[in-house]
Amino acid sequence: MDVSMVMNVIQAVLGVMIIALVLIQQQDAGFYSSSSNINRTRRGIEKFTYNSTVVIAILFVSISIANFVF
C-alpha cells in the first residue's frame, strides 16, 4: 500500500465521521431555531460533540491538503 491510498482511506473515514457528528448534534441549533436564548453555553456531551466535529474537520482539511501536495 502506498501513502496516497492510505491518505484516501483516512480521508474517507474522517468524512464519514464528520457526517455522523453533524447529524448527532442538536436539531434546533440552526438558524431557524425556536429558542430565544441567543447566548447559550454548550455543556456535557453537546460540547464534546461540537469540539470533536471541529477537530475532525481540521484533520480532514489537513489530510486533504497533504493528499493534494503529495
Poorly predicted runs: none
Number of helical elements: 2
Category by helix and strand content: mainly alpha
Average pLDDT score:
86
Extended strand count: 0
Rg calculated over all Cα atoms: 16 Å
Largest sheet: none
Based on CA inertia axes, which overall geometry fits? elongated
Written as H for each helix and E for each strand, in order along the chain, the element string is: HH
CA distance, first residue to last residue: 15 Å
How much β-strand is present in the residues?
A: under 5%
Helix content: 55-70%
How many structural domains can be distinguished in the coordinates?
Answer: 1
Write structural notes for this entry.
The chain has 70 residues and is mainly α. The protein contains 2 helices and no strands. Helix 1 packs antiparallel against helix 2. The longest helix has 25 residues. The model has no long low-confidence stretch (mean pLDDT 86).
Record the SSE blueprint:
Elements: H1 3-24, H2 45-69
Helix pairs in contact: 1-2
Q: What structural keywords apply?
A:
70 residues, mainly alpha, 2 helices
Outline of this structure?
With 70 residues, the protein is mainly α. It has helices spanning 3-24, 45-69. It has one domain (3-23, 42-69).
